[in-house]
Amino acid sequence: MLALNIPSSLSIATAMDQAAWITDKLVPIIVQHGSFNNRNKGRTDIISCEVTPKKNEDHYMSNAFFINVLLKFEADSPERYYMMIKRPQEDPYIRQFLNTEVLFHNETLIYTQMIPLMEEFLKKRVSFSIQSIFPTCYYARSDSAPDEDVVVLGDLKPEGFRTTEMKVFLDYDHCVLALRALGRLHAVSYGMKNLEGSAFRTIISKLRVQTFANSSESDIDLFFKKTTLRAVKYFARGKGVDQTVVKKLKDKFSKCSELLVQLLTPKEPLTVMCHGDFCRNNMMFRYDECGKPCEVKFFDLQVVTYASPAIDVSFFAYLNMSSELREQHWDDLFKEYHTSVVNNLADILRCPVDDLMQNFSLKKFQKDFSDHAVYGFLHSSFFLPFIMTNAKKQVKWEEIFSGGLVEIADTSVELGGEEATVKLADILKDLVNRSAI
After folding, report:
1. Residues 166-218: pLDDT tens digits?
2. Where is the CHK kinase-like domain (predicted)?
3. Which residues contact 70 (CB under 8 A, 6 or more apart)?
4. Residue 323: alpha-carbon gap to chain centroid
5. Does pLDDT of 283 surpass 70?
6. Which of 47, 197, 200, 243 could form a disulfide with 70 if both were Cys (CB 3.0 to 4.6 A apart)?
7. Do 71 and 36 touch, CB atoms closer than 8 A?
8. Which helix (H) or strand (E) holds 162?
9. How far is residue 383's CA from residue 389's CA, in Å, rounded to a whole number?
């Protein structure tokens, strides 16, 4: 039995085709794969499958569907499973522009190889599970045919998780919860590098680098020159601003293709497996009876990279923290992140926290952040205006990606108005004050 709910954003023909593929082909494959621990339960029958396309208001790199599957195992009562399915965008141009083959390769690699390796690693050493950070992955496949790339995850909504109602900037409680969980993830990376280095690095070496539309270095340079200049101009008009600093900023942002390579180059010992897209829209929170967030899980692991932990921290700090929150609580939030890293790593390595301070002191993490924090600004320079606009009216991503990289920059600098310009200038001011430029 197939039940289908179709939102207006997806054509009926496309939705029916996708739903039929999920019901007739994908779900039987997942069952045969043994994803429901059904290998020793005898025959498994699919009683029903309901498919609901997800409205991708916050996501544009893939199409998502929710499915509700009722299975009957030979020796047991029927069981219901709730899952989310990610598929590549239908539009071939968008797929090429986003390089979705690379995205699905990376996400499949992390869910099918890295996370299981982490899970086995943690079982021997600590009480927490990697599933406290990520949803269950039932099935993932890539590198066969682009149209058949797929990732199937547990739907977190029936477990009480939901995306935050805040569409741009998060409050302190959400930020501290996210950063503590990020610290736990980064600690697992450090622990595995120390104790399972060969297996960990073998998987890391298989990650592929995403390139948007095979853009040239000159296009990347022009793109960021346009998006960063918006904040630089506003910053330059501030009282008491040293114009030599302004010139330094313009020079620095004139060759961002080289700057990004420098920022993403691994520098031991602090390099970790970064989420890579550590943003509000890639998190779901569970709330207590008072409405306070008490648990968070991360998803969308398509741009995982091996780099400085500041890649994740700066991306999150500048995209999802208001300038007021950073001004009032940044030191406390960063210490919460660092404490989570060293405490969890000490548990994993079964050593005192003091033994870690030679390589993992707060001062060294702060220095590493200053060295890499501009990464968060570069991405905020174009992404924050989109987020701020999308919070008020839905952005039509298919229209945005119809042009090239430079056209996207031209669109970005017009979005968000004066409010977005001020927010970007605040980030720039923060970097200058931290000597991160």
Report:
1. 989 999 999 999 999 999 999 999 999 999 999 999 999 999 998 876 788 99
2. 151-347
3. 46, 47, 48, 49, 78, 79, 80, 81
4. 22
5. yes
6. 47
7. yes
8. strand 161-162
9. 10
> Position 200: which residue type?
F
Cβ–Cβ < 8 Å for 409, 222: yes
State the pTM of this model.
0.92
Tokens read off for 152: 């199937």
